[in-house]
Amino acid sequence: MARKPRLAAGRARALGLPTRGTTNPNRLRRVDRWMTGTLSDLLLSAADPLVVDLGYGSSPITTVEMASRLRSVRPDMRVLGLEIDTERVEAGKAVADPPWLDFRRGGFELAGARPVLLRAFNVLRQYTEEQAFEAWDTMLSRMAPGGLVVEGTCDEIGRRCTWVTLSAEGPQTFTLACKPSGIEVPSDLAERLPKALIHKNVPGERVHALLAELDACWATAAPFAPFGPRARWVESARLLAERGWPVLDDRRRWRLGEISLEWAAVAP
């Protein structure tokens, strides 16, 4: 039986359960690149440019990397890494540079912070779907006005990723990202769907239909294979949009191995 999220003991009562903690340098480079390229207006317009990295794991390296990447958009960005495990918090404090980069014990309640942007990656897979939706609501209730949550999952080296972007109004977009040379078909990303979708990849559900359609586009784009997997991915994305799917981005982002769609395209 899955454990319910709880308030962990301690001075700062943190909502949630510790993750496995596994991480690697550059594991989250794809979502970081997407945030800097797609959410730059949000970051530039924020009155208080605070970003939270929730559940960074046993090493703070991905939080440090995120801070460096986001500062290419806004140099005065402040980044706060949150973890429930006290040893992980101490590991973060060893590389902290407050107030620009700091680490604190906290969970879904965000330790009292009110960020404009929150990244929560590989955090919700251990929860039930109901618990994951509750975590969405809890995190969103702590965001600054107009703030966004980016919640998703990736493989151990960051070559296969998916994520959902959430606002106070609910889920907004869904993104698939990968290294095109590292897949046989786009539906290989199904194993990394976020918790809200991973159990919905069955006939009759929208996310299953999306992946099947994208695989069909990939097959149609086979003549582009001699130009490389990236060219084939770009053509697959173009075909997906041509077939009526609500694709939000363009060739500039497709070339990076990304496809973003309106959430309604995959909503359970």
Return residue spans where pLDDT drops below 50 for at least 5 consecutive residues. 1-12
Estimate percent helicity. Answer: 25-40%
Mean pLDDT: 93
The spatial strand order of the largest sheet comes to 5-4-3-6-7-8-9-10
Order of helices and strands: EEHHEHEHEEHEEEHHHHE
Question: Span between N and C termini?
Answer: 24 Å
Largest sheet: 8 strands, mixed
Rg computed from alpha carbons, rounded to a whole number of angstroms: 18 Å
Care to count the β-strands? Answer: 10
Shape: globular
Strand content: 15-25%
Structural class: alpha/beta
List the total number of helices: 9
Keywords:
10 strands, alpha/beta, 9 helices, 31% helix, 268 residues, eight-stranded mixed sheet, two-stranded antiparallel ribbon
What's the arrangement of secondary structure elements?
Layout (H helix, E strand, L loop, with lengths): L6 E2 L5 E2 L13 H10 L1 H6 L4 E5 L6 H10 L7 E6 L2 H8 L7 E5 L11 E5 L7 H13 L6 E7 L5 E8 L2 E9 L16 H4 L7 H15 L8 H14 L8 H4 L3 E5 L6
Would you kindly provide a written description of the structure presented here, covering whatever features stand out?
This is Class I SAM-dependent methyltransferase. InterPro entries: SAM-dependent_MTases_sf. It comes from Lentzea rhizosphaerae. Keywords: Methyltransferase, Transferase. The chain is built from 9 helices and 10 strands. By secondary structure, it is of the alpha/beta class. The protein has an 8-stranded mixed beta sheet, sandwiched between helices. A two-stranded antiparallel ribbon has the order 1-2.
